[in-house]
Amino acid sequence: MTKQNQALLLELKNVQINLNGRPVLKNINWAVAQNQHWAIIGPNGSGKSTLARSLWGAVDPNRGRIILHFAKNNPAIPAFHKAKIGYVGYELAQNLIQEQTFQDQYRSFQGKPHAAVTQAQTIIKANNPRLKTHEFDQLIQELGIKHLLASDLRSLSSGELKKVLLARALVKKPKILILDEPFDGLDQSSQKQFTDLINRLTVDNKFQLILITHRAQELPPAITHVLVLKQGRIKLQTTKIKAAQNQTLRQYLSTNQTDFSFNLDASFQKLIYRYYSKKIKQAPDYYVRIQKATVFYGGEKALDQVDFVFKKNQNWLIQGPNGSGKSTLVKLITADHTQTYANNIWIFGQKRGTGESIWQIKQNIGLVSGDLQLSYTKPITALEVALSGFFDSIGLYRQANNNQRTRARAWFALFNLKDLSQKRFDQLSNGQKRMVLIIRALVKMPLLLILDEPETGLDLFHRQKLYSVINQIVDQTPVNLLLVSHYRDIKLTCLTDYLQLNKGRIVRST
Questions:
Q1: What's this model's pTM, rounded to 2 decimal places?
Q2: Distance of alpha carbon 153 from alpha carbon 160, whole angstroms
């Protein structure tokens, strides 16, 4: 049966979308019919997430039309965009977490700081208050998230958060379900569980799936069709079977796997060492020392009697499944966890809670994490995000001097991202945002660079670019690395030590 004689659910006709006056999607003509499940594939910055946002109503076309054929009355009315379209993506997580933070601040302002925060169950039910109890219970059981219903969204792991957002999307019984990079931040076991879950849901539910991904190798079996985007244009749209044999797609995958050459030039190395010379003389032999750290979440131990020592000239890789305690350990080091001061922790020779200046310690630490990316919600440029790294602020509230601006621009040039520096950060792809945050971490020349799942949102090419950059920085500068990652094929020759966590405990340390 051809697309023409199948019932169409969704059509895009000559769609163009501009962001900040610049065309991001151009001349998009595409249709989704019943019994079709699409994967939208493309490199970082190709327009995938912008296309997803346009489908669920977060951004309107500057030209052309998006038509929902299942909407009653006039299917071209934008109000119908959200009616029967479920969405799971980074932007939604950011919006909900930001809303929770605002509510906490409002309660504190009212003098009720201990009032209950918005819980996962409330987030889910708010999307369909009329959903019958037995239907809700059945969905929660199917997704296996009953134990998460009383949780604050900010305490959930990447996999747990995705399942809660998936439940939130499914309660409205959508005609179309959009999953924007659902596998990012998931370990291999969680990826398989999520893929199996998607396959079951597409069989048992009456919705069409649209999957946004930069990983063509990880398409769930449920996918029937593939749309390839590059530089805002459609390069290929066909069935998954034909796509596997298509030269255009093979070339795209080959391009993603090309090695990236990165080298610090002599003048920049000289600048770096001049800046670091004083820091290195003052640095203690132990950058981090943690003794018997224990952290609780809702009565459960996120960390259980963990000892960790990070010495000068070490470069650590920390691994473990989702929810094993990796990010919690990082938050203890950066003092971004409320239980930091209930544990014995020394950072650069200074014990936490003994009157140390948190800002002085942060000047020696560069951090990249998913939580940090979620925090940037204001419409500021990528350069301003990078400059905020000098002040360890979320946003730029102080005037950066000429020297700081010169150094920040030099890092953009080294990453070959000069064209991104003046673009709005909130309008970049997730992969581009992650690269900008790495520049933010490096501008102040930290002694300790902490990268918590830095590959999230990066296609294969930019992952290899990232590894090349990290190797060069660690080899050619005094920076020491603490990398948290669930990837097994990490191409980093600079790593010297390894720590594996599971259920909050150390199961391997070498």
A1: 0.80
A2: 9
